[in-house]
Amino acid sequence: MDVFVYGTLTAPERVAEVVDSYAFVGPAHLHGLHIVEGRYPTLAPGGRAAGRLLRTDEIDRLDAYEGVDGGLYVRVSLPRTDGGEVAVYVGDPDRLEAAVDWPGRGSFPERLRAYLADADVSVEPLPDR
């Protein structure tokens, strides 16, 4: 599975601490969301974010690292501009002390998914330089 990474998981030494088998498959842009700093980086509506595509089959270990079961981050699937899908982790801004206002009502995962259903959000793989 390909994962768009934009924070600590862009560093090979950090990824090697989390998963046993992985490859960086190139740079990418995330359209429709931008990076916001908090206790850890997260994403907010609008703009663009630069990152990398990480390929690994150990998604359960990434989920554990990102605190998915505890609600720290939510893993969503977004379309690739060249076909297929990419996993992206989006952190709960309240839990990460990040100044992000997700529109809508309900829990953070509900507001995130509603935004993604209505917005034009995609991951564009870029040529390796």
Secondary structure elements and pairings:
Layout: E1 2-5, H1 12-18, E2 23-36, E3 42-55, H2 59-66, E4 73-79, E5 85-91, H3 93-96, H4 108-118, E6 122-125
Parallel strand pairs: 1-5
Antiparallel strand pairs: 1-3, 2-3, 2-6, 4-5
Structural account:
The chain is α+β, with helices and mostly antiparallel strands and 129 residues long. The protein has one domain: Gamma-glutamyl cyclotransferase-like (Hypothetical upf0131 protein ytfp), CATH 3.10.490.10. Helix content is 23%, strand content 39%. The chain has helices spanning 12-18, 59-66, 93-96, 108-118, and strands at 2-5, 23-36, 42-55, 73-79, 85-91, 122-125. Strands 4-5-1-3-2-6 form a six-stranded mixed sheet. Strand 4 (73-79) and strand 5 (85-91) form a beta hairpin. The longest helix is centred in the C-terminal third of the chain and has 11 residues, at 108-118.
CATH architecture: Roll
How large is the count of helical segments? 4
Tell me the β content.
35-45%
Q: Return the string of H and E elements.
A: EHEEHEEHHE
What is the alpha-carbon Rg in Å? Answer: 14 Å
Shape: globular
